Amino acid sequence: MAEVRIPFNRPYVVGEEFGFIQAAIREGQLSGDGAFTRLCNELIVKETGASAALLTHSCTAALEMAALLCDIGPGDEVIMPSFTFVSMANAVVLRGATPVFVDIDPVTLNIDPGKVAAAVTPRTRAIFVVHYAGFPADMDRLAEIAAAHDLFLVEDAAHAYGSSYKGRPVGSLGDLATFSFHETKNVTSGEGGALALRRADLVARAEIIREKGTNRTSFTRGEVDAYRWVDVGSSFLPGELMAAFLYAQLRHAGSIRQKRLALFERYAEAFRDLEAAGRVGLPHASDDCAGNGHMFYLLMRDRADQDAFIAHMREAGIVTPFHYVPLHSSPAGRRFGRSTGDLPVTNDTAERLVRLPMFAALDADIEVVIEAARASLRDRRAA
Question: N or C: which end of the chain has fewer CB within 10 A?
């Protein structure tokens, strides 16, 4: 195997992280909900327009909190895309409910609202929506479906911090929204996540769920004389060192987004002629969406093309992975969930999509990636 010259991802450091970590240590509180956690929550609220935001140790934790806040339980169903990460389905299965997998739109790769509408049953409790590659889903149509059936609408915005839909920021488009700050994301704390709540009536319970089912947050604000076990919950808090690192990143989220958007546009420019020739497909969002440069992918002609491209790039020392194995075809997906139909777009996308390296410090190496990718595509053009 060739030595890796250009990884798929490299964590980006803005330069203030170490100073804030030192400040957190001097402050003397390393457990969760200290000064840096509160500062992060405030910046997330400012970015998203949500009523409140609560930092978590992962986006997985935020999704599990969302499932609890939606009162999902045995016998319930939750509609979601199959083309997503397992954490979304796990959050539902852990509540004893059934994930219902639907197909995605062939252009945006986001959940297809028409398929969602057809999947609603009397057991449906919520719709979980992914903003794939940082481009928001069709939230107006999805909100109409949710309102018509009195369903919760939850945004999985793991890819989409800083994106917007019709001028409205991601995180304010559903009842709840979850974010990831994993090292592969635009803004990172290594691991990490957040739950943003548009509905103010859910905030008090979210604080309890996040603090192991206790009203400890109210106690620390002096609102009760002692904290007690009052609801279900778990330990969803991150530590202050993680929050201190993240605070530095959040302060520079805008400049990080601009760097990644510039890389996204360079990739798009480099492959437009091949798209026009029908050789590859490129990311496309609706005109009313503004992305954040989270991901750039190519859609190959078929699985053989996908495998050959990944192998060629590996030999060049460049990591270009495929993405999700569809949940509906995974062992646990078949065991715990059900799908609505054969999901042909999902199946086809999974067998053709490859992701190109994307990180804020990619800089001139993007030209190396482009040259190698075009060489691979040229070599197999007639295959």
Answer: N
